[in-house]
């Protein structure tokens, strides 16, 4: 649950990231920045901010903002009905993003995760994305990501988003945001 | 057909637009900017420049650059095999884009097209996109677009691109670029 005050503070920080990147939003879009704390109530550690530009039956595009050191928790996009599941390309626009996917674990990861949540991060194949670099995650692949010390802005190009179908490793997580 | 010299000049102009917009490209991407003259050999009037970030079976994302007053000729994306055809969202990042789609013709269009090509522009339902504004074009819809006097940078979020299937109104057009 995010209080209105926390939401407003973070929304303002997000708009500063967008303006640093020269990403123009309409007035209506500025009002509907999403702030997701995944129901964990520790947004600056575990959370994600975004603006969704389009989400039709076939195509979705968003720009994501991560605060310094903020982590989007581990999850995957399973097949849903006739769809093989969501496919996502993350393209770094600003800052550095440390992305972790299934595969050989890195020996010395460049990030740390909260001690009490360590067991909810199970994939440690590390991909480092700097501005202009990108990576595509196919359906049914566990992944999580964390921003470096400057925060990060990341474009996401994907098939349809259906957040309610995402499967998180942490059983405490509720994806759909609740603002009080 | 585009000569190497024309290609290099336009590539440099395109990179300036991207840097004005704070859009970061990798070194490899900077080398593979596409310059499409549609086989008409009048690139600054009728043409389009772009960088393709991703084009899988399901998702495609590009950033387009239009030079001042440059027009992307009228075309549509027909159904292909099992696919209903390409769906495109254009989001203006810089400059102004005048987009024309099927529907009621505007009385006084904000653009003009080359006199000798007038009959190849048949749809005149005008949509004006300024930075942060966007429009979605569903398959099988005729469309064309022109940049204002500052040029334009436009993000395109779409389903898979298969340029060879695009249908242009102008019978003189060849979509696949030829650089000599
Ligand atoms: Zn994901
Ligand atoms: Zn098109």
TrEMBL record, chains A, B:
It catalyses: D-lyxose = D-xylulose. Its cofactor is Mn(2+). Keywords: Carbohydrate metabolism, Isomerase, Manganese, Metal-binding. GO terms for molecular function: D-lyxose ketol-isomerase activity; metal ion binding. CDD domains: cupin_YdaE (cd20308). Coiled coil: none annotated. SUPFAM superfamilies: RmlC-like cupins (SSF51182). Its EC number is 5.3.1.15. It is an enzyme of class 5 (isomerase). This is D-lyxose ketol-isomerase. It comes from Lentibacillus persicus.
């Amino acid at each position: 649950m995010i209080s209105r005050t926390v939401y407003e503070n973070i929304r303002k920080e997000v708009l500063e990231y967008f303006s640093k990147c020269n990403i123009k939003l309409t007035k209506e879009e500025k009002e509907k920045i999403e702030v997701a704390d995944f129901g964990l109530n520790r947004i600056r550690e575990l959370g994600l901010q975004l603006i969704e530009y389009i989400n039709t039956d076939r195509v979705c595009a968003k720009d994501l903002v991560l605060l310094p050191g903020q982590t989007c928790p581990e999850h995957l996009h399973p097949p849903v009905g006739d769809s093989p599941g969501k496919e996502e390309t993350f393209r770094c626009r600003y800052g550095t993003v440390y992305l972790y996917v299934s595969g050989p674990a890195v020996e010395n990861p460049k990030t740390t995760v909260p001690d009490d949540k360590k067991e909810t991060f199970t994939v440690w194949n590390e991909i480092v994305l700097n501005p202009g670099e990108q990576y595509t995650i196919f359906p049914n692949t566990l992944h999580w990501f964390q921003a470096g010390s400057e925060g990060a802005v990341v474009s996401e190009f994907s098939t349809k988003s259906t957040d309610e179908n995402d499967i998180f490793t942490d059983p405490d997580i509720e994806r759909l945001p609740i603002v009080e």
